[in-house]
Amino acid sequence: MDSVDSKDAEKAVLTKLGGIRDRIDAIDNQILGLLSERAHCAEEVGETKREAGEKNIKFYRPEREAQILRRVTELNPGPLAGERVTAIFREIISSCLALEQQIKVAYLGPAGTFTEAAAQKHFGQAVGTLPFMLISEVFREVEAGTADYGVVPIENSTGGVISHTLDRFVSSPLKICGEIHLAIHQNLMNKTKDMSGVTRIYSHEQSLMQCRDWLDRNYPGVARIAVASNAEAARLASEDPKSAAIAGENAASLYDLKIISPHIEDSPNNVTRFLVIGKEDVPASGNDRTSILISTHNGSGALYHLLEPLKRHGLDMTRIESRPAPDTHWDYFFFMDLNGHISEDAMQAALAELDDEAEYIRVLGSYAKAIL
Ligand SMILES: O=C(O)C(=O)C[C@]1(C(=O)O)C=C[C@@H](O)C=C1
Questions:
Q1: What residues make up the domain containing 61?
Q2: In whole angstroms, what is the distance from residue 209 CA to residue 215 CA?
Q3: Is 266 within the bounds of a domain?
Q4: 322 three-class SS
Q5: Residues 180 and 206 in one domain
Q6: CA within 20 to 30 Å of 114's CA: 145, 251, 303, 347, which one?
Q7: Are the beta carbons of 132 and 109 closer than 8 angstroms?
Q8: CB 114 within 8 A of CB 272
Q9: Boundaries of each ACT domain copy (predicted)?
Q10: Protein residue with least CA distance to atom 9, ligand 1
């Protein structure tokens, strides 16, 4: 191609791009107009809720949000992935909710942890988030009303259950208002991107466990040091060139660290489940889970008697965990997750029978199942 031809070709590309960009500008104008219209609707919803003057007005409606997100994901014609569409609509709803009320969400910190990422995934960027260093502090802040909701980890697909969270439910009056599933990607990071002089790798014990095989293969001689959180690990690595950290991308950008090896978790399906805790009961969304806390007398067939009514009423139990009771009165508490909502007939009938059978039973919450 001579230079005249190549100039013509370049011009043609620019003309074509210019045309497409004009279309994008026109679409953006429409999106902006529609966003503004939606935001006005949210303001109207807020005013209507205020006018209704209920004592405990619920501006945040997790069941409604779940329905919206499921609907748009189902309708999504592509080519954007469902997960991307959900994330975009989450932010729209988050910004609309902020027009109604500024809610505060406490989470297991510090900033840069996966729990922060989970809180942002669920509530969007327009809510105020407050980090606390202990799971019990997150519960306390919500119980005291300093925060409206809390986000705490409950289980990881590799590391198992987070017993601090389960145990806290035994003494707390709080309810479970939602769940969040977050794909966890662990990354090896340090200040220089050079591992030659590194003698220590810091991380949370759960993260070290999730990367154990990878570390055995790649850094068998480097000491692994468990610290309070991944973010703390990143902070330590940012202050010491002889150390590295295993943490999420949030922590890398927060502490200005460079990622040496991304996605080093042993299991490609490494997911952590988080719970949203609050003071309210959540109405049914159409695809819900119910968590209960139950204890029974010790004795032969005790657990069978708890499970039998569930089977008879056709309820699926998706998880059962046992924890020792904090006093000697009962031996064990069981945490059960059941498919369905407390307002459904089968659930009510089964729980009424369990109430007769059990020493103690409490519904921790019925809430929408996690969305993407
Ligand atoms: O439908 C409501 O109740 C609203 O407040 C509107 C809206 C939304 O933007 O769609 C905002 C916040 C709620 O958590 C749920 C939905």
A1: 3-95
A2: 10
A3: no
A4: strand
A5: no
A6: 145
A7: yes
A8: yes
A9: 291-368
A10: 93
Alpha-helix runs per DSSP H in the chain: 3-52, 62-75, 82-100, 114-123, 135-144, 163-171, 205-210, 212-218, 230-239, 249-254, 302-312, 345-357
Q: Are 243 and 191 in contact (CB under 8 A)?
A: no
Structure tokens at 215: 């570390």
What pTM was computed for the model? 0.91
- Tell me, yes or no, whether 176 and 197 share the same domain: no
State the number of CA atoms in the 13 A half-sphere of 219 facing the CB: 23
ipTM given for this complex: 0.99
Q: Is 45 in the pocket of ligand 1 (CB under 6 A)?
A: yes
- The distance from CA 312 to its chain's CA centroid, rounded to whole angstroms, is 32
Residue 253 CB coordination number (10 Å): 12
Question: Which residue, by CA, sits nearest to atom 6 of ligand 1?
Answer: 42
Residues 209-265 have pLDDT tens digits of 999 999 999 999 999 999 988 999 999 999 999 999 999 999 999 999 999 999 999
Calpha distance 206→227 (Å, rounded): 10
Number of domains in the chain: 4
Q: Is the CB of 252 under 6 A from ligand 1?
A: no
Looking at 252, 277, 302, the residue that finishes a domain is: 277
Ligand 1 center to residue 87 CA distance, Å? 16
Q: Are residues 204 and 228 in the same domain?
A: yes
Domain boundary residue, one of 249, 277, 305: 277
